[in-house]
């Protein structure tokens, strides 16, 4: 048996059942971060992530900033605040010095935007360039969020950092990947949003929501909205009902430029294999509006898209009351083929409904 016979998420399940649990670990492995209780008022949060090589092609500056986002996203999804990042760089001896320095300085600069510091790391010679970050964070014990504790009846809500809509980043990636015939002005606009959205996180929004005490579960959307729904429900042993009109309302109007060209249902842009740096929450239904008001006060928003259900699986409910089984699409590793080879084609050919 090979890894692609079972996929990434089943590897996670095996790890959560197999790894020994430290006496300092209050929840066990299998969440967005490792969590340690060192006897203070805060939990220590630890997580690590590799930057995809495609990011280096844009620039080392961009790769450094994306490394911060990838690592800090997990900390923030726990309700935490990042305090530091370790950066491991494996570079060939022919790597340009200015480029390497640009990577370091960009990582430092972007970490500071979240109140954290670049505090160390490792540098080694290697044939292929590889960048790995390790984030360190803290979370007040009353603020800690888990991906595994959603309850039936909870509102499923997506953060909206700075009240931004989703879908543009993936629209640009797909338009560029397939070399769609769009004007230079349109491509420049999509690219600008792609680069900006990929470097923002719902930090203030999530901290505000966590402070309410009404959030039962939270997971980041780094694997896409579909992946987040899967993780939020599978971890708790329940299901989800997503409201069609509310899912469509998440989307930026500009995606129509790409969906029309590809002849793809616009709803597909709500269920992409990543390129969405938000958090998905399960919130006590009767307290949702109060939590949303806390988030709005930060300049962001919290969008109700459905609810947690007793029955497993994910359904989509339409305005006329019809319900259809929703086939979630998301970025799961070890499912065959290279990322760039498999995901765009699979996404375009994916049938959302059974």
Automatic annotation (TrEMBL):
GO terms, molecular function: thiamine-phosphate kinase activity
Domain PurM-like N-terminal: 30-139
Gene Ontology biological process: thiamine biosynthetic process
Keywords in alphabetical order: Kinase, Thiamine biosynthesis, Transferase
Family annotation (InterPro entries): PurM-like_C_dom (IPR010918), PurM-like_C_sf (IPR036676), PurM-like_N (IPR016188), PurM-like_N_sf (IPR036921), ThiL-like (IPR006283)
Keyword Oxidoreductase assigned: no
Superkingdom per UniProt: Bacteria
Residues annotated as domain PurM-like C-terminal: 152-316
Pfam short name (any one): AIRS
Keyword Kinase: yes
Annotated protein name in UniProt: Thiamine-monophosphate kinase
Organism of provenance: Afipia clevelandensis ATCC 49720
Species classification: Bacteria, Pseudomonadati, Pseudomonadota, Alphaproteobacteria, Hyphomicrobiales
């Amino acid at each position: 048996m090979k890894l692609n016979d079972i996929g990434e998420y089943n590897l996670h399940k095996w790890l959560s059942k197999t790894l020994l649990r430290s006496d300092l670990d209050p929840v066990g492995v299998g969440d967005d971060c490792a969590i340690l209780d060192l006897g203070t008022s805060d939990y220590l949060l630890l997580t690590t992530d590799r930057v995809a090589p495609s990011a280096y092609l844009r620039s080392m500056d961009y790769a450094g900033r994306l490394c911060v986002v990838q690592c800090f996203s997990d900390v923030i999804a726990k309700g935490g605040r990042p305090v530091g990042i370790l950066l491991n760089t494996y570079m060939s001896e022919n790597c340009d010095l200015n480029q390497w320095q640009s990577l370091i300085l960009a990582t430092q600069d972007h970490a500071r935007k979240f109140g954290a510091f670049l505090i160390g790391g490792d540098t080694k010679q290697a044939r292929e360039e590889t960048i790995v970050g390790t984030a360190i964070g803290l979370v007040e014990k009353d603020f800690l969020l888990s991906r595994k504790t959603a309850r039936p009846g909870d509102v499923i809500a997506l953060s909206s950092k700075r009240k931004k809509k989703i879908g543009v980043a993936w629209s640009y990636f797909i338009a560029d990947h397939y070399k769609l015939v769009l004007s230079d002005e349109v491509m420049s606009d999509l690219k600008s949003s792609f680069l900006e959205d990929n470097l923002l996180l719902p930090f203030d929004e999530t901290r505000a929501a966590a402070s309410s005490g009404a959030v039962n579960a939270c997971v980041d959307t780094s694997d896409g909205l579909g992946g987040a729904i899967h993780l939020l429900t599978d971890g708790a042993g329940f299901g989800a009902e997503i409201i069609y009109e509310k899912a469509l309302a998440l989307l930026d109007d500009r995606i129509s430029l790409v969906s029309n060209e590809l002849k793809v249902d616009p709803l597909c842009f709500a269920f992409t294999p990543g390129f969405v740096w938000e958090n998905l929450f399960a919130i006590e239904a009767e307290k949702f509006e109060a939590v949303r008001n806390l988030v709005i006060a930060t300049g962001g928003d919290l969008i109700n898209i459905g609810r947690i259900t007793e029955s497993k699986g994910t359904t989509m409910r339409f305005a006329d009351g019809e319900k259809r089984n929703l086939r979630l699409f998301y970025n799961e590793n070890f499912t065959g083929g290279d990322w760039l080879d498999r995901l765009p084609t699979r996404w375009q050919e994916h049938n959302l409904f059974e």
